[in-house]
Design brief:
15 helices; elongated; five-stranded mixed β-sheet; Alpha-Beta Plaits; alpha+beta
Length: about 375
């Protein structure tokens, strides 16, 4: 991950709640995708083993078709991948669970129908029980990311058949007890799976935070918080070649603090560090466009990449920065330390510069000329 990509990632997904919602939504979508197909296949076998249904073949396909429609709805309800709004994921989750719950209600209806239409224990009842046990287990393991919603799905799947077999179906009490025992076990497993899932997501998020922080440190100057030389070189090469291909404008400022050694000698190195941080703060305030990059490329040497800016515009921006710097001396303890800078300003010349290093060399030389001419000035090339 580099520069803009890392920044976009950090802005969007390093928020813990948003990351958990997005991750849970993606997992729910993928894990629920095949459920409707399994329901449809099982219901086809289920209804074909009931004698009254076999006498009405057109009726036998209503249930499988209903499950296929639910499967299609699961597929079409896509996760809002690009959204950074938590409410978008919550609304999506509500819609998705409505479809899942509809399948659970439909299957519990199958179980009740099997008990009412079958004569004693039958193939139909056996298929229904096995599928009910399998679906309970699938819910507690696959849908642990939304524990409360999964509890509701287990209840919708098991409770209506338990009540029907216990009170309204002849000799159905053993089946009701079996469903109750297996449903209770599934809920206990759901609680454990939910805790494991939450731990896994927390660990993943912590790892992403650590990775992002490592990337930030690798590309950032620790003292000033600006980009470091490594990041500057990467971005300058990238911006230069892109602008060269498109024939667009690309400007650069090379800035060197004046008399920095004298500041260190007079006030101490801690004061020098304070001046560098103060300078970096003003630099960041002056160059805030999305395409700008402020970097510390040496001890007291800085560079600003200005995409889409001509040499004339860069010189004007450089002078504005120089004025702002003069008007904002660095407060250090009970003292005020004046800071000035020599600036070289220029833009890539596609007829003259063969590579990024050549452009930098011209503008760096302009900065050197500004120092030779007396410092606290700008030389444009």
């Amino acid at each position: 991950m580099h520069d803009a990509a890392l920044d976009a990632f950090a802005d969007r997904w390093l928020d813990a709640d948003l990351y958990r919602l997005r991750r849970a939504a993606r997992d729910l979508y993928v894990r629920a995708l095949r459920g409707g197909i399994y329901y449809a296949a099982a219901s086809a076998v289920f209804v074909m083993t009931i004698e009254p249904v076999r006498e009405l073949p057109w009726f036998a396909w209503i249930s499988p078709i209903a499950y296929l429609v639910l499967a299609l709805l699961r597929y079409l309800n896509k996760v809002p991948e690009g959204s950074t709004e938590s409410d978008d994921y919550r609304r999506w989750r509500f819609r998705h669970w409505l479809v899942i719950d509809a399948g659970c209600v439909l299957w519990s209806g199958h179980m009740i129908a099997a008990g009412l239409l079958s004569q004693g224990y039958s193939v139909t009842l056996t298929v229904g029980l096995l599928c009910c046990f399998a679906y309970n287990s699938a819910i507690c393991h696959a849908f642990a990311m939304n524990r409360r919603a999964a509890y509701l799905a287990l209840t919708l799947l098991s409770l209506p058949p338990i009540i029907a077999f216990a009170f309204f179906i002849h000799d159905g009490l053993p089946i009701a007890i079996g469903l109750a025992v297996q449903g209770s076990y599934a809920m206990a497993m759901l609680d454990r799976a939910s805790k494991d899932y939450a731990t896994q997501i927390s660990n993943e998020h912590a790892l992403l935070l650590s990775r992002a922080e490592t990337e930030r440190l690798v590309r950032t100057d620790v003292l000033t918080g600006l980009s470091n030389r490594r990041e500057y070189e990467h971005r300058w090469e990238q911006a230069w070649h892109m602008a060269a291909r498109q024939g667009g404008d690309l400007a650069l400022l090379v800035i060197d603090l004046d008399y920095f050694k004298q500041i260190n000698d007079t006030y101490g190195h801690a004061a020098g560090d304070a001046c560098l941080r103060h300078f970096a703060q003003i630099l960041s305030q002056q160059f805030r466009r999305a395409g700008d990059l402020c970097a510390r490329i040496g001890g007291e040497e800085f560079a600003v990449i200005l995409s889409g800016i001509s040499a004339f515009e860069a010189a004007k921006l450089g002078r504005d920065f120089s004025d702002a710097l003069i008007k904002s001396p660095c407060p250090y303890r009970d003292q005020i330390i004046s800071i000035t800078a020599s600036i070289g300003a220029g833009a890539a010349d596609w007829d003259q510069d063969p590579d990024p290093a050549a452009t930098f060399a011209r503008i760096d030389q302009a900065c050197y000329e500004a120092k030779k001419q007396g410092r606290s000035r700008l030389v444009a090339v």
